[in-house]
């Protein structure tokens, strides 16, 4: 497997320049992972698959189409130029695409550190976006979808794309990773944010097995409430909201739901055994 990966990598760096791979290549990776992971949730909503849907409301076809068309425009006009102009900074910090490929230990450690940095920066950036002026003029675009679906994860004002996008690229920008690490980081970060906005709380959702992970239920609460009372500002993990008490409303609601479910279970009639 390692040899196949190295052969494929050798083909890439032989036939394409590092700049092409870091800019256009990263853009292609991002678009592929984003739309391939996000479109199934759009189809679920369109087909009315409601069993695990968090909210009953479904976005209209016009709203869904608007989201997709705006995303394509934002990605081409904002994301791609950002990837192009970021390359010199990455290169200055030691970025490389050459063989040998980094070990999985190095890749795992770097991606873990990126999640920690991204969580911290995103939390504070997101809280700032929920101040009155910035919400009205910038962040309200993202909150046009009170009932999110996977693709709405990156539906935002161009200024917000740059503002919060900084949180995603900060880690790689200061460490100058290998291109493989960058591509894996972009992929897992996209998969995480799409899942957080998917609108479905499945029995196999990661948040059910990893309590510190936010997931769809945690972030869906954020979209349902008014901007001044929403809380749940975290990106991937929930510890920042817990530390600063900005998830109190969500935790109170979860406790009330658990108590109601327990009460209903105790009140349910039991079958009489003959």
Uncertain residue ranges: none
Structural class: mainly alpha
Quick check: average pLDDT? 91
Cα shape: globular
The main pleated sheet reads as: none
Family: Belongs to the sterol desaturase family.
InterPro entries: Fatty_acid_hydroxylase, Sterol_Desaturase_Related
GO molecular function: C-4 methylsterol oxidase activity; iron ion binding
Transmembrane segments: 20-43, 71-90, 102-124, 161-186
Please name the defining characteristics of this protein:
about 270 residues, 10 helices, mainly alpha
If you had to describe this structure to a student in words, what would you say it looks like?
The protein is mostly helical. The chain has one domain (2-260). 66% of the residues lie in helices and 0% in strands. It has ten helices and no strands. It has helices at 2-15, 18-47, 61-92, 104-129, 132-137, 158-175, 179-196, 215-224, 239-244, 248-267. Helix 2 (18-47) packs antiparallel against helix 3 (61-92) and helix 4 crosses helix 7 (179-196). The protein starts with a helix and ends in a 7-residue tail after the last helix.
Short description:
With about 270 residues, the chain is mainly alpha-helical. The protein has 10 helices and no strands.
SSE layout and pairing:
Blueprint: H1 2-15, H2 18-47, H3 61-92, H4 104-129, H5 132-137, H6 158-175, H7 179-196, H8 215-224, H9 239-244, H10 248-267
Helix pairs in contact: 2-3, 2-7, 3-6, 4-6, 4-7, 7-8
InterPro entries: Fatty_acid_hydroxylase, Sterol_Desaturase_Related
Subcellular location: Membrane
Protein name: Fatty acid hydroxylase domain-containing protein
